[in-house]
Amino acid sequence: MRPSLTAIAHILDLSKATLRVAWQNVVFAIAVKILIMALGLMGYASMWWAVFGDTGVSILCILNSIRILRR
């Protein structure tokens, strides 16, 4: 923690970036789940696609969130 007032501006920027990345992760996860569900309803995707898709989305969301640490 820095004892200066510039830390407040940095925290506000960091919180905005965190909110932006969180929304990106939510939208991406829902989009992939809808895509896999649609493919499953058409008979193109099995339960394994859903398992691997969900695991892949989780890993990608974690990697996307790590970007915040570099700020």
TrEMBL record:
<feature type="transmembrane region" description="Helical">
    <location>
        <begin position="47"/>
        <end position="66"/>
    </location>
</feature>
<dbReference type="GO" id="GO:0016020">
    <property type="term" value="C:membrane"/>
</dbReference>
<keyword id="KW-1133">Transmembrane helix</keyword>
<comment type="similarity">
    <text>Belongs to the cation transport ATPase (P-type) (TC 3.A.3) family. Type IB subfamily.</text>
</comment>
<keyword id="KW-0472">Membrane</keyword>
<feature type="transmembrane region" description="Helical">
    <location>
        <begin position="21"/>
        <end position="41"/>
    </location>
</feature>
<keyword id="KW-0812">Transmembrane</keyword>
<dbReference type="GO" id="GO:0015086">
    <property type="term" value="F:cadmium ion transmembrane transporter activity"/>
</dbReference>
<dbReference type="InterPro" id="IPR036412">
    <property type="entry name" value="HAD-like_sf"/>
</dbReference>
<protein>
    <submittedName>
        <fullName>Heavy metal translocating P-type ATPase</fullName>
    </submittedName>
</protein>
<dbReference type="InterPro" id="IPR051014">
    <property type="entry name" value="Cation_Transport_ATPase_IB"/>
</dbReference>
